[in-house]
Amino acid sequence: MLRSMHDLAHYTLGATDGDIGEVKDFYFDDATWVIRYLVVETGTWLASRKVLIAPASIQHCDWQAQRLTLNITREQVKASPDIDTDKPVSRQHEMDYLGYYGYPFYWGTGGLWDAARPDTPLEPKDDVRLRSGKEVTGYHIQAKDGEIGHVHGLLVNEESWAVQYLVVNTSNWWVGHKVLIAPEWIDDISWQEQKVFLDLDRDSVKNSPAYDDTLPLSREHETVLYTHYRRTVYWSVETRVDPPQ
Q1: Closest listed residue to residue 128, CA positions, set 88, 91, 164, 156
Q2: pLDDT digits (tens, 9 = 90+) for 169-215
Q3: Which long-range contacts (CB under 8 A, 24 or more apart) does 30-33 make?
Q4: What sign results for the dihedral spanned by CA atoms 205, 211, 216, 221?
Q5: Which CATH class is domain 133-236?
Q6: Which of 226, 165, 138 is nearest to 2 (CA)?
């Protein structure tokens, strides 16, 4: 099932020995569009420090209660490498963080989640960078033949923690109309100009199935969407999507 990033940004995180805080943002890598870290505001118990939590730490998701239970302790979080979440997270910081928790590096040989251990000699790939979900919200969407709207939000796959769709608001052209765009339909992104360039024309986007964010997204809607764009549905492609445990 897919979850809205807006909704997930208010979830409570609980460690094995007490609550840690609330999710405030997400970092995804710009190569695979997979969420690598949750940015968590810890509150007064840790002097309102912001920490990174990897999806690998999530043991249970209570979607109704909006609560994520972790397999780590508050003391582990407290002693974790200090990372300034207001600045770009360097690959060295990631290596320190993943090494501290003993989690695999996600960069390396391919796939959404790679299995290289932190003690495996890998050359860091600086071309893969982490992006903030909040930052991307509001980016302008450019079709082949003109602008069509802006990023309204992101839909996240609860199994793989991949960003499955960008929710695009086209209200400047078609009143009250939201559509879904999959990351694989993106031709290019200018992070400096805050623009997303699609491999689609405006008419194809205009005539695509409208998305109602007040209703759960059904597989039927997704099938119609992919059929409209003449693309292969993502669930028919064999990909290893399980986060590392």
Answers
A1: 91
A2: 998 777 768 999 999 999 999 999 999 999 999 999 999 999 999 99
A3: 30/128, 30/129, 30/130, 30/131, 30/189, 30/191, 31/127, 31/128, 32/112, 32/162, 33/162, 33/163, 33/183
A4: negative
A5: mainly beta
A6: 165
Backbone angles phi, psi at 134, to 5 degrees: -65, -35
Q: In this predicted structure, which of 21-30, 69-78, 127-136, 210-219 has the lowest mean pLDDT? A: 127-136
pLDDT greater than 70 at residue 120: no
Judge contact between 181 and 168, C-beta under 8 A. yes
Write out the H or E segment, with its range, that includes residue 133: helix 133-136
CATH classification code of 2-130: 2.30.30.240
CATH 2.30.30.240 in the chain, residue ranges: 2-130, 133-236
